[in-house]
Amino acid sequence: MSRFFDKRFSELEAYTPGEQPRDMKYVKLNTNESPYPPSPGVIKAMAERELSERMRLYPDPECLAVRESLAALLGVGKDELVLTNGSDESLAFAFMSFCERGVIFPEISYGFYKVFAQLYGLNYRQIPLKDDFTIDPDDYIGTDETVFIANPNAPTGLFMPLCDIERIAASNPDRLVVIDEAYVDFGGESAIPLTKKYDNLLVIQTFSKSRSMAGARLGFAVGCADIIRDMNTIRYSTNPYNINSATLAMASAAVADNDYYLDNCKKIINTRTDTTEKLRALGFEVLDSKCNFIFAKHPLLDGEAYYKELKSRGVLVRHFGSEKIRDYNRITIGTPEMMDTLLKQTREILGAKRG
Ligand code: PMP
User: Fold this and answer.
1) Is 129 a residue whose pLDDT tops 90?
2) pTM
3) Which residues contact 172 (CB under 8 A, 6 or more apart)?
């Protein structure tokens, strides 16, 4: 830390992104990226000459074309939507904008919530999950703090029914409920339609997972026009050009190619079912995931040792060291071939263990 660093941040524990290793080529199942390429339309948009020529100009700060087409796809108004640099930026804006009375979120969830709470100097409480790793909606009722819930949750992959989200939002119209739907396209159900009924509900999604655009950094938030206006006040006060021209061009094509992504999601869901069954047959305990990853542990394998052993064999998964989940690994769903490699290596690791 330099002597210039603001003391407010001296205790800040920054978010640790998943490894993006360069030492060798891994079967990469550690950061929940899509194994499938962006749609043909997106690839074409990236190669357009007109796009390179446009690079000398600033991008449209209103992102109007993409907002209009995405709003039409989602069935909301274009003023009920804001585009951000990844959904992390939507979350950052929400933590910055709406959390004066503090925040609550599940103890086991996306690690960035705690980082944002600390960064913005907010009071925060982390609510334990139930023993089966589900979220108890009653824990979020009867409080005044802004709620952040990932649904489906990460890294568990478990989905909370929309009726519970609705109960939490309806229980206190004067505090905001933020639903992070980064993984909702893999079998969950979006709360976006509920934003019409509840003006204290904000739903955040991303193009990083189901739309194969993690590298382009595009996320969005949907809520009533007043909330979105507030987020734009913060956006224009930090980085009005938060979405670059290349990402805007790709996003328009991605929205137009929605069927391609729906198809990919189906493939990923099928591969998830198949991998879950095969891991369970090997003795793994695998939670019922509605995400493009699964969360799994094995009675004979130490979580960290299994992660390390897989890595040495060229398969990268994600292990979290915190106490309640250290027996588990989070495994992204790749192509069937990638999962075959994971399963083959796992069988060998188990075989060596059993002797
Ligand atoms: N929410 C959750 C639950 C996530 O796992 C992630 C990805 N790490 C994000 C939000 C942020 O994703 P992005 O910024 O790529 O949209």
Assistant:
1) yes
2) 0.97
3) 141, 142, 143, 144, 200
351 C-alpha vs ligand 1 centroid, how far in Å? Answer: 35
What's the gap in Å between 88 CA and the centre of ligand 1? Answer: 6
* Closest C-alpha residue for ligand 1 atom 2: 182
Q: Confirm if 263 and 122 have CB atoms less than 8 A apart.
A: no
| Beta carbon of 208 within 6 Å of any ligand 1 atom | yes
The DSSP secondary-structure symbol of 149 reads: E
Q: Token match 């992102």: residue?
A: 63
| Confidence label for 68 from pLDDT (cuts 50, 70 and 90) | very high
To test the pocket of ligand 1, the residue of 34, 109, 112, 289 to mutate (highest count of ligand atoms within 8 Å of its CB) is 112
From CA 234, how far away is CA 204, in angstroms rounded?
A: 16
What are the structural domains of the chain?
13-37+259-354 (3.90.1150.10), 40-256 (3.40.640.10)
Query: Which tens digit of pLDDT belongs to each residue from 191-229?
Result: 999 999 999 999 999 999 999 999 999 999 999 999 999
How far, in Å, is the centroid of ligand 1 from the Cα of 216?
A: 13
User: Which residues does residue 149 pair with via DSSP β-bridges, in sequence order?
Assistant: 179
Q: Are 200 and 176 in contact (CB under 8 A)?
A: yes
